[in-house]
What we know:
Number of helices: 14
Number of strands: 14
Strand order of the largest sheet: 4-6-7-9-8
Largest sheet: 5 strands, mixed
CATH superfamily of the largest domain: Histidine kinase-like ATPase, C-terminal domain
Number of domains: 3
Distance between the termini: 64 Å
Shape: extended
CATH class of the largest domain: Alpha Beta
CATH architecture of the largest domain: 2-Layer Sandwich
Amino acid sequence: MKCNIVIFPIKDEQGEIINYASIQRDITKEEQLKEQVFQAQKMESLGKLTGGVAHDFNNLLTVINGFSKLGMELINKDHPVHNYLDQIYKAGERASHLTSQLLTFSRKQVMSPKKVNINQIFQDTQKMLRRLISEDIELIFDLDENVRPIKADLTQLDQILMNLVVNARDAILEKKDAEEKKIVVSTKQVNVTDEAARQFIDLQTGPHVLIQVSDTGIGMSEEVMKRIFEPFFTTKKEGKGTGLGLATVYGIIKQNKASIQVTSKPGERTTFSIYWPNYLEEETTDEKNAQQQLVNGKNQTILIIEDENTVRELLAVTLKNLNYSVISASDGAQALDLLTDPQNKIDAVITDLVMPKMDGLTFAKKAKELGVKAPILFATGYADEHLEQLIDAENRDLIIQKPYTKEALSEKLSKILGEK
């Protein structure tokens, strides 16, 4: 407890001090609020820095991933260079996932949920997770091969697993006399009955994938378990934790209409159990074909606006390969001149969202004022207040996240041009 104490003397008629009195006020909550405000300000500053760096980093990844993929399309699979390019592309893909993880606290991320196999996602993250824990801690994956698909955002799944495993690692390291150091990540296909659902207010009935992360760490008391999902709450020593990891996990769980429970006792195993609803929608034949094939253009003209030369070059090459004609501009002002030139029949525009001089939204506003009706696709490496405006306007289909793939670009263009 922290207190604010005022002490003052009590004097007699002659002015001599005969005693002292004090007023004491508990300022614990005020100090905690100050610490939370400081932490929030620190995270906000870090988020802005990370967001700016990520914008440039995602531009680089767009070029690395894009040109390596184009290179692979021009070389026979048996050629050694094809394998080299494939390794570059895969490394770029992993880097893009890491960038997304870094951006978790710096932006309101646009969810991109899709049908996924949770086991495959967990298998792909094993190497990264092993680097996060001590060598003397055993990491075990017990994955039920019968689990059915779920609908989820890949980045959010990575974030959940990373936070829970790091939390488990810290719990084990805090247990000084631990004879067994083990983290177990498991999946299981389950059906939540009415009786089971009634025990938890946020648990729905029906088929779910049960995801569990267990550790042999120090455990938690009931008092601690009641607060572990609160933002800024942490049992770690000062400077060892932000208190945001489990709060982030909880937020993602709620956002996806899943449920999370915790069981633990001091000095014993802790288990986080996540019930994630199965993906129940059946894919149609058309949807399967759409996933397997690129949708080529019909020689429509696309105006691209991108201030980064290499990204602009990549985008132009990719669009030409997709059977589109291309007109390029390096900034919004130049693009407006091209857009209003009667000799140019522009069918759609792809513009970077964040650019110097004139950002993508300002360009779109000016284009609309000029009576331009061509649809505009906004590309961005990170989401700031610009993207938030688009989300509020319910224009999610008009956004493509960098680093984007040829397939993603094809899909977005076909939607805004009304080809599907």
